[in-house]
Amino acid sequence: MIEAPAITDFNGLFAMLYARSKDTPAKAFWDAEALHPAIFRALRMDRAEDGAIYAALAFRLYRSPDGPRILAAFPAPKIDDDDWLGIETVLSWDPVKDAAQVMGDPVPQIVGVPSDHAETALFASPFPFLRALAEARAQWFVKRRHIASAWHSVAEPDHTPGLLLIGAPDKVRWPIHDLQRGIIAHGLNPQDINRALLRQAHVPRAFAAPSEIRSAA
Q: What is the pLDDT of residues 36-47, one digit of tens each?
């Protein structure tokens, strides 16, 4: 006798099918063209170099009404992913102007992942941020071949190199509680970042109390 699937199984299946049917930035990334020569040119990578193919799989060429764009997914799909449902954010990058915005949410914001280490890299320009992502992916892929074996698998990590600032520092919501001790500012004035962080952290300030002694009439 074949048992009927549990209702929760059907609910999960329908939810997945509905998510796959929706037009989202993640789906647009998935359907865009992978490994196009324009991706390698924009990131200044040689396709023939070791690890370049894996590095480029985090990017897609997307032909928008405003012109071609390079899309980057965060987190990037893993090698064995068969859909786009794990993608949370898609960055749309114009490599000619080196300008970027979050696809579907073009407002000032922070993109990326704070580092687990003592310092997090913060980028003002999309190119060095995306290039650092590509380099981290290529380096990991090359190392993986030397440490993986039939009995020892290597988990595929998130290679995001830090944070990308889109817009003015005082216009974004900073992930204050996720940041570690230091922020390394690339192409940014650290004082501007510190002022924005202090304003959003709501650090208390002390003021002198008014004197209780009245001056003589």
A: 999 999 999 999
**Residue 16 placed within a domain:** no
Distance, CA of 12 to chain centre: 27
Q: Look at the block and give the residue holding tokens 């954010």.
A: 89
- How many angstroms separate the CA atoms of 103 and 29, rounded? 10
Report yes or no on 42 lying in a domain. Answer: yes
Rounded to whole angstroms, how far apart are CA atoms 16 and 13?
5
Determine how many CB atoms are found less than 10 A away from the CB of residue 51: 19
Range of the domain at 149: 23-201
Task: Pull the structure tokens for residue 129.
Answer: 């941020």
Q: Which uninterrupted H or E stretch holds 60?
A: strand 59-64
CA–CA dist 70, 27 (Å, integer): 14
pLDDT tens profile 51-105:
999 999 999 999 999 999 999 999 999 988 999 999 999 999 999 999 999 999 9
User: What pLDDT score was predicted for residue 55?
Assistant: 98
Instruction: Tell whether 14 is covered by a domain.
Output: no
Q: Are the C-beta atoms of 122 and 193 separated by less than 8 Å? A: yes
